[in-house]
Design a protein that fits this description.
heterodimer, A: 724 residues, mainly alpha, Neurolysin, domain 3, five-stranded mixed beta sheet, two-stranded antiparallel ribbon, 30 helices, 7 strands, B: 172 residues, 2 domains, 7 helices, binds zinc ion
Chain lengths: 724, 172
């Protein structure tokens, strides 16, 4: 009997261990190798089948997608029938489905959940995609069909949305040079390739300059720094040591602390370090990037880019590059932009001077004998903040758990438009922290899918953004969108809920506003849906939602203490509101200075005599009277937004949207009801639903009843002299 | 596709530095996120469904994830067919099992399964060996069983945590 028992025990143990190994083997074998991008997605609501998409599926899908797209374009061009809106514009709208499908997933995941393989693919794909785009916008046959329709537009009985689609499509060709003669076209192509080389060089230089400087400190140099900051600097040193190739290089970082000109490393140091000399070193390394007269200098490059852009604009028949850019924006001319910026400039600068005086008073009271310099700003503004505004973030956070804030934003949009949110658990996303909600309209009809991916992680890009996995259209049947918000809030520790700062709350509402712009969209053609509008308008639907986050009535409805359930006290709310006006002189001045610098660079003439960026920038800044203790948010040699990115003559957009959102929210306040149903309905109908199917200014006027005014913005930012 | 143009990627790489992706940390982040997902799922379930889930967990605990428990109890059973002796051993086992399960589930003790699991295997073998060596179950058998019960309780807590048993399921 006992022998039998041993035998049973042993054999069962054996089988048990067997079962374990077979399980593991199973999970290691590759899944069915069929490419999910080539199949129809039978997932609920058309959410991409994330669990089936593997790294190796992208490239074949991209290649086939581009191939199909070009074949579709050929079919449109070679159609023997005369060009019509249906056989050209609508067919164009239908084309490129596969490419769009893979591109949306790819560009989202390279931002929010990337890996080394995807990063490599990204570098490989970027030139392929831009040459693909060129093949379409430079296709003469295609342009000729579009132009024929454009010329006949008045007799075609098109509705306003169709006219707009026609106009946009034609503009895309014209702005790439379709109306130029052969010689001019060749010249534009030549300028384009020069610009593209220079912008790439600008970005690479800047990257090298930013990574090139490091402040290597000993334990004795850490005076004033908090534990968290010290730990991060030690971690940076360890990383550098691990990446070092030679023993000698490794020794350089051993037991040291490293700070870099990356903002996340520099700002905490400037705020906390008591070593004024080191603050100066780090700060100067930041503002001198690209301006060190070495092989990675950007001074000449910046000037060359600006001049080439001016030359191209002239060729295309525009006065300056800014005129060329603004044609497609809500503000139509450089004069309008300058006018807006200069209206804000004076009050911002005045406020900044008051802030300097406040800080100088602290310096004097401490018994120091120096004048506030640029590298003192963070440290002394923090001291002023503590004394004057005294908002303890740690006391505030327990009221702002992520789930409470989400309930708050859901309740806000529910009160505005009657829409509801249901969290879904049976849809697989790309990461377990990416949550899914179904959004339904007042009457229960499906509006779209909202994905919220809130916590920071090591394979997610910094910052916060909104994007979509699927667009909206009412053309060829109803397509409802799948949109996503990605943020970088600190992940909760252990089983405690995630607690947000008030800044985080504002960010969440902001991105949610973009998401609403995507979800409420109700247009026919997907290319004009959601957030597709001009840059100086699309921030408006996002930024206006932020205002509800700081309404006391709404804050009280969602901000309850996660342990005790106590509602946020009035005193704390007052402090939050007061603190929002803190340091606004500085923030607005540095931002406006950069915006004006951007405009100056892009309103030059092609034959302007300028050699490098320094002299130009100096003249530009002294013209507006910028004070020495503030630098433009980006100086020319590291203004990647305009010299390596797409913000040329566009950096002003943020503040323009801010004018709109402050003025727009003021409309609600004027009625005495921040949920005024009539206004809410207008906002939805004329802004959130319309995408870019009408001129932005028209949309705004239909909602507001008049053009925007800047007064509300000055009040919100404490620049109307009421602060203090 | 909003805010995803290539130029913004360049800007972010310059301003924030490149991503530092380390496998170990990424795995830890993923595990933590997975646990959060389970918690949310559970919190959103109606009680009937929760009840069902735990019944299912209970059954799965016995087969196949609770093979260790079956073996152990079988081991006890093979050692003696005398009712009183068996009762004592089973009671000792149940008591011990409950204590460690509660402690582990409440988060008071946490011992990695890489230590617990081999010890459990050892305990089963021990019971089997003991069964073969001695004709009669000796007096300290219930104590040995008690100690092993403590161990198996810890093991069960590991299984349960896979289902994401949140702390607030215990009313204090
Ligand atoms: Zn935004």
């Amino acid at each position: 009997m006992k022998r039998i028992s041993i035998a049973i025990v042993c054999s069962i143990l054996f089988f048990a261990s067997c079962e374990e190994t077979t399980k593991k083997e199973k999970s290691n074998t590759p899944v069915n190798s069929e490419n999910p991008f080539f199949a129809k997605w039978d997932t609920p609501f058309g959410v991409p089948p994330f669990d089936k998409i593997k790294n190796e599926h992208y490239m074949p899908a991209f290649k086939k997608g581009m191939e199909e797209n070009l074949a579709e374009i050929d079919a449109i061009v070679n159609n023997s029938e005369a060009p019509t809106f249906a056989n050209t514009l609508e067919e164009l709208e239908r084309s490129g489905k596969l490419l769009t499908k893979v591109q949306r997933v790819f560009s989202n995941l390279t931002g929010s959940n990337t890996n080394p393989k995807l990063q490599e693919l990204q570098r490989e794909l970027s030139p392929m995609l831009s040459s693909h785009r060129d093949k379409i916008t430079l296709n003469e046959g295609l342009f000729n069909r579009v132009e024929t329709i454009w010329q006949a537009r008045e007799n075609l009985d098109l509705n306003s949305e169709q006219l707009k689609l026609l106009e946009y499509t034609r503009k895309r060709f014209v702005r790439s040079g379709a109306l130029l003669n052969k010689e001019q076209k060749a010249k534009v192509t030549e300028i384009n390739s020069k610009i593209s080389e220079l912008t790439t060089a600008f970005g690479q230089n800047l990257l090298a300059e930013t990574n090139g400087f490091e402040l290597i400190l000993d334990k004795a140099d850490l005076d004033g720094l908090s534990d968290g900051i010290i730990a991060a600097a030690a971690e940076t040193a360890t990383q550098k040591m691990n990446n070092a190739k030679t023993e000698e290089e490794k020794a350089k970082y051993k037991d040291k602390y490293v700070f870099t000109p990356h903002r996340s490393s520099m700002y905490p140091f400037l705020t906390e370090s008591n070593r004024r000399d080191l603050r100066e070193q780090l700060y100067k390394s930041y503002v001198q990037r690209g301006d060190n007269d070495n092989e990675t200098d950007n001074k000449e490059i910046a000037a060359k880019i600006a001049k080439l852009r001016a030359e191209r604009a002239k060729l295309m028949g525009y006065e300056t590059h800014a005129h060329f850019v603004l044609e497609e924006r809500m503000l139509k001319t450089p004069e309008e932009v300058y006018n807006l910026l200069m209206q804000l400039w004076k009050p911002a600068l005045e406020r900044a001077k008051v802030e300097v005086a406040d800080m100088q008073a602290v310096v004097d009271a401490e018994g120091h004998d120096f004048k506030i310099a640029a590298w003192d700003w963070w440290q002394y503004s923090e001291k002023v903040r503590k004394a004057k505004y005294d908002l303890d973030e740690a006391a505030l956070k327990p009221y702002l758990s992520l789930d409470n804030v989400l309930n708050g934003v859901f309740a806000t949009t529910n009160k505005l438009w009657g829409i509801t949110f249901t969290e879904l658990f049976d849809i697989k996303t790309y990461h377990p922290d990416a949550r899914v909600w179904e959004v339904k309209d007042k009457d229960g009809t499906h509006l779209g899918i909202f994905i919220g991916d809130y916590f920071t992680r090591s394979n997610k890009r910094g910052g916060a953004w909104m994007s979509s996995f699927k667009g909206q259209s009412n053309f060829d049947g109803k397509e409802r969108p799948v949109v996503v918000n990605v943020c970088n809030f600190p992940a909760p520790v252990g089983d405690a809920p995630a607690l947000l700062s008030f800044d985080n709350v504002t960010t969440l509402f902001h991105e949610f506003g973009h998401a609403m712009h995507g979800i409420l969209s109700n247009v026919n053609y997907s290319s004009m849906s959601g957030t597709s509008g001009p840059r100086d308008f699309t921030e408006f639907p996002a930024q206006i939602l932020e205002h509800w986050a700081s309404e006391p009535e709404i804050l009280k409805s969602f901000a309850t203490h996660y342990k005790t359930g106590e509602v946020i006290p009035d005193e704390l709310i007052n402090k939050v509101l007061k603190a929002s006006k803190f340091n606004q002189g500085f923030a607005n001045t540095e931002y406006l200075a950069a915006s004006l610098l951007d405009m100056d660079w892009h309103t030059i003439n092609a034959d302007e005599d300028l050699k490098d960026a320094d002299a130009f920038e100096e003249a530009s800044m002294s013209k507006i009277g910028l004070i020495g203790v503030i630098a433009p948010r980006y100086r020319s040699t590291y203004f990647a937004h305009i010299f390596a990115g797409g913000y040329a003559a566009g950096y002003y957009s943020y503040v323009h949207s801010a004018v709109l959102d402050s003025d727009g929210f003021e409309a609600f306040k004027e009625t005495g009801d921040v949920f005024n149903p009539e206004l809410a309905a207008k906002l939805r109908k004329h802004v959130y639903e319309k995408g870019s199917t009408e001129e932005a200014m028209e949309l705004y006027k239909q909602f507001r009843g008049r053009e925007p005014k800047i007064d509300a913005l000055l009040k919100v930012r404490g620049l109307d002299g009421s602060s203090d | 596709m909003y805010a995803h143009s290539e130029d913004e990627l360049i800007i972010s790489e310059i301003e924030q530095g490149q991503l530092d992706m380390q496998d170990q940390q990424m795995t830890a982040e993923y595990e933590a996120a997975l646990k959060r997902l389970r918690m949310r799922k559970l919190a959103a379930m109606p009680w009937q469904e929760k009840f069902f889930i735990f019944i299912k967990a209970g059954i799965q605990h016995i087969i196949p994830k609770g093979l260790d428990h079956i073996l152990f109890v079988l081991g006890l059973f093979f050692s003696s067919l005398i009712f009183m002796s068996l009762l004592k051993q089973v009671t000792a086992f149940t008591l011990a099992h409950t204590i460690t399960l509660a402690l582990a589930a409440l988060g008071f003790v946490e011992i990695p399964s890489s230590i617990v699991e081999p010890l459990i295997a050892l305990s089963i073998v021990w019971i089997a060996v003991e069964n073969c060596m001695f004709k009669k179950t000796n007096k300290w058998r219930p104590i040995v069983v008690f100690v092993f019960g403590l161990l198996l309780g810890l093991g069960f807590a590991c299984v349960l945590s896979e289902y994401g048993l949140p702390n607030d399921y215990f009313s204090p």
